[in-house]
Amino acid sequence: MTTQAGVTVQAGEAARPVEAARPVEAARPKRDRAATRRRILDAARDLFGEHGYAGVTVRMIAASAGANTALVNRYFGSKAALFGEVLEGESTLRGVIAGDPDGLPRRLAEHFVRQVDRRPVSAMTRMIDRSAGHPEVKQILLRYLEDAIVEPLAAQLGGPDARARALLASTIIMGGGPVRRLLGLNDLRAADPAELTDRLTAMFTAALAPAPGPAGVHREV
Questions:
Q1: What string of DSSP letters covers 137-186?
Q2: Is residue 218 classed as helix, strand or coil in its secondary structure?
Q3: How many Å apart are CA 6 and CA 215, to the nearest integer?
Q4: 106 shares a domain with 65
Q5: Is 111 within a domain?
Q6: Does residue 199 form part of some domain?
Q7: What per-residue confidence (pLDDT) applies to 73?
Q8: Nearest residue to 90 (alpha-carbon basis) of 55, 63, 120, 128
Q9: What's the start-to-end Cα distance of the chain, in Å?
Q10: Which residues bind DNA (predicted)?
């Protein structure tokens, strides 16, 4: 066997080129888009809850999430859109509204009581309390009210005046926010939860019921 100019030759064989060793490239971890989005949403939720909408910048959110501002903007478009997505993701109302329409008033009442008794208050509650006065947040809350509460409620109700009935129930749901911010919830927390749930069930039942027709006769749904 002889070796000539990078070619190995054995007796009776044609020359074959010697293959050069190829460097092994280190595997590069692929960016996990879902995990990155989740980190950004979690960071935004915590920061909005702590500082309010006006006190938070995209740069702050990116730094907390271990991302860069360009990535935050690429995934969500703007701070307002990010706030809206956090709000939607934190809401449990869609699940409360879905289900048997006959049990809807009771489910709404139980949800209301859970929020009253929740300590500490949820991240979503802190976000709204500390951001509600901002003009951009007002528009986000209007869209949230429509998409997450009014439309799903109206779809559950059907029949005449479904949207008006859904709006009436929504005023009970969303009205708890101003009461909480201005007066606090100590009196409601001191009430018996079962009694409070029964009272709220009656309120939601009345709000969601079809309007009475002539001579006090309820219209068919």
A1: HHHHHHHHIIIIIIHHHHHHH-STTHHHHHHHHHHHHHHHHHHHHHH-SH
A2: strand
A3: 106
A4: no
A5: yes
A6: yes
A7: 94
A8: 128
A9: 97
A10: 57-76
E-only strand ranges, the chain: 2-4, 7-9, 16-17
Would you state the pLDDT for residue 199? 94
Backbone angles phi, psi at 54, to 5 degrees: -65, -25
How many structural domains does the chain have?
2
Contacts of 5 (CB under 8 A, 6+ apart): none
Cβ contact 167:113 at 8 Å = no
Residue 116 placed within a domain: yes
Measured CA to CA, the distance from residue 187 to residue 196 in angstroms comes to: 11
Q: Which residues of 120-152 are buried (b: 16+ CB within 10 A; e: fewer)?
A: eebbbbbbbbbbbebeebeebbeebbeebbbeb
Domain that residue 46 falls in = 33-77
Residue 119: partners with Cβ closer than 8 Å, 6 or more residues away: none
- List per-residue pLDDT tens for the chain, 221 residues long: 555 555 444 555 555 554 444 444 444 444 588 899 999 999 999 999 999 999 999 999 999 999 999 999 999 999 999 999 999 888 888 899 998 999 999 999 999 888 877 767 777 888 888 888 899 999 999 999 999 999 999 999 978 899 999 999 999 888 766 666 666 667 777 888 999 999 999 999 999 998 776 544 455 44
3-state helix, strand, coil in the chain (%, to 5): 65, 5, 30
